[in-house]
Amino acid sequence: MAEITNILLESGTNELEMVEFYLDETLEPGDALLEGLTAQAVGADQAASYRGYYGVNVAKVLEIIRMPKVTELPEVQHESVLGAFNLRSRIIPLVDLTLWLGKTPAARTEEPKTIVTEFNNVTTAFMVSGVNRIHRISWEQVDQPNPYMAAVSSNTIVGVVKLEGRIIFLLDLEKVVANLNPKLSLRLDDLGDDWDGTTGYRALVADDSALVREMQRDLLERAGFKVIVTTNGREAWDCLTSFRRRVEEEGRPLSDFVQVVVSDIEMPMMDGLNLTSRIKNDSILKQLPVLLFSSLITEKLRHKGVSVGADGQISKPEVGTLAKRAAALIRERGLAGDHAPAEGGAR
Predict the structure, then answer these.
(1) Closest Cα to residue 345, out of 197, 199, 203?
(2) CB under 8 Å to 342, separation ≥6 — which residues?
(3) Which candidate in 77, 202, 281, 304 could, as Cys together with 11 as Cys, close a disulfide (CB 3.0–4.6 Å)?
(4) Beta strand pairing call for 202-206 and 166-171
(5) What predicted TM-score, i.e. pTM, was given to this entire model?
(6) pLDDT digits (tens, 9 = 90+) for 129-139
């Protein structure tokens, strides 16, 4: 598992390859986990330690290595930043994921592993207690955390997988990196003095992150778009098929309802690559431009969006270019039409 290469899935299959890893923590007296959850405890004292299971998309993983020799940094934003190490002439920061999650690390019974990741065009390494294996599953097996779970986990969980008798949490590693370095977080950049904010274009947004959805809505509405937001690819597809049905029944152009789709890639139920593939293989919906907006858009992975027919791809830190690129795609496709929203169209 050292090198994560040549194992990425064919695009558009709605499958996820997930690296499963675990974190061993010590439970303090009075911790709620001490009651009812000791079945997954580890170590000699089962009432004092706990093993939690987590996952990360293989597409974000460069490699998995043994614990490297770390050089401490003179000043860090959080105690979880252990320092940095040299990996083939690249200096990479190392984050103790157990500490970042606010947990007390358990006494080590084995050498920890380091997961080296790349997303948002940034390379970061995470120290974990150990790595189990890589699973290939359907995104339909990934449940979206309910609002309560999202709130109590401070929105660090983006998906829940029930697998082989245990629960695996997909972590929002982008949030970890953005919190440690605010310069890497999404920002609403200036649209520019030459921007016409009265377009009235209609955009459908699909993203499982509430924060990102609202940021996109805010940005696009400031640019004059009429915006529909959906929480995953399945919900977006259902919305699009309802528009297609009205196009066929009422004889109206698709642009009366939607003129561009902006989609994340990683989403429960249906991912953005599968959503794009479905759109481009539909006789009516294929005219819609699709703009992928994801942390997974790197030079190494850009071909996956191209292979399913995406019309444009933007890495998530570059949110300021989103509205201009969406408007340009609408004009290029000749879908500008009447900008005024139709009854029953975008809202």
Answers:
(1) 203
(2) 252, 256, 257
(3) 304
(4) unpaired
(5) 0.78
(6) 999 999 999 99
pLDDT band per the 50, 70, 90 thresholds, residue 156: confident
Q: Are residues 210 and 155 in contact, defined by beta-carbon separation less than 8 angstroms?
A: yes
- Residues near 291 by beta carbon (within 8 Å), at least 6 away in sequence: 260, 261, 262, 263, 310, 311, 312, 313, 314, 322, 325, 326, 329
> In Å, what is the CA distance from 158 to each residue of 13, 244, 250, 266, 277?
20, 30, 38, 9, 23
Looking at the predicted structure, is the pLDDT value of residue 336 above 90?
no
What is the structure's pLDDT at 191?
Answer: 53
Nearest to 22 by CA among 83, 97, 95: 97
Q: What is the pLDDT of residues 276-288, one digit of tens each?
A: 999 999 999 999 9
Could you give the CA distance from residue 189 to residue 177 in angstroms, rounded to a whole number?
20
